Amino acid sequence: MDFFDTQILFYKFNDNKNSLDKDIEDVIQKCDITGGQISSVVALEFLGVMEKDCNRAKIYPVKLAINHPPLPTHYRFRRKGCEIGKYRTDKIVLDFNSEFDSIVIYSNEAISQLINRKDLDGLLFFARNTYSRKDYIAFRNKVQFLIDYDLSVVPITQEIIDVMYRIYEEIKGEYNVKVNYRNSFMDLLILATAVTYKRYLYTKDKELQKLVTRYCNYDSGIDAANETTHIESSAIKNNGQDNKGFVNNKWRLIRS
């Protein structure tokens, strides 16, 4: 199952609403995402769960038991400023060993579990008690979109962090980390997930395209002609270096 980045999902989602420019409709039609895979980072970005430029989230979904009882329409103890689930959901901290400030990602495992189980009610419970009506409807439509296309979500693991570190070490001499370095590392995590699972990655993100062109061999056929990079993530460029026995002893994923 191939991987898709956040922009591909947005284009496909908007196409379903007939709001795309005609120029890119053909590109989207050629990119069938049904039954594909996405990183948990892509899921959190697409659903708008992450707050931009900071270690917070707009909502904090938690993992729920299989066949959990029906959730209440509204949270009984809700109060202004209450962040439902924040202290119960899973949280990972990307520790860069002082090279960069740590990045916190909430609901990495929860968003993966809930979408993979197609638990629409579970996700909507947290959105309903946090978002305005307009934002809630937008969130519901996006979740339904992921479910309808049978997309599987892959959570971030230490193995993926190790691959991300390896990619960064190979390209850091010529890869300019964005002023908002968080965005750069979200791109790296998306790529590292596809590389870890040795699957294709489809992307329309220009920065991510530059990154994968530098790091991976990719098929530049029809997709690239339409500005959609189709990456063979399993074909890693060696660059004359021996990667056997590679060990990441610097960057860590801390669960809390």
Could you list some keywords that capture this structure?
single chain; 256 residues; four-stranded mixed sheet; 41% helix; alpha/beta; three-stranded antiparallel sheet
TL;DR of this structure?
This protein is α/β, with parallel strands linked by helices. The protein is built from 10 helices and 9 strands.
How would you describe this protein?
The protein has helices spanning 6-16, 22-30, 40-46, 108-116, 120-128, 133-148, 158-171, 181-196, 206-215, 222-225; strands spanning 3-4, 37-39, 91-95, 103-106, 152-154, 200-203, 216-219, 229-236, 252-255. Helix 5 packs antiparallel against helix 6 (133-148) and helix 7 crosses helix 8. It has one domain. The strands form 3 sheets. Strands 1-6-8-7 form a 4-stranded mixed sheet. A 3-stranded antiparallel sheet has the order 4-3-9, with helices on one face. Strands 2-5 form a two-stranded parallel ribbon. Mean pLDDT is 78; it is low at 76-81 and 218-248. It is of the alpha/beta class and 256 residues long.
Summing up helix and strand content along with how strands pair, one would put the structural category as alpha/beta
* N- to C-terminal distance: 30 Å
What overall form do the CA principal axes indicate? globular
Q: Report the mean per-residue pLDDT as an integer.
A: 78
- In DSSP terms, counting alpha (H) and pi (I) runs of 4 or more, how many helices? 10
* Unreliable runs: 76-81, 218-248
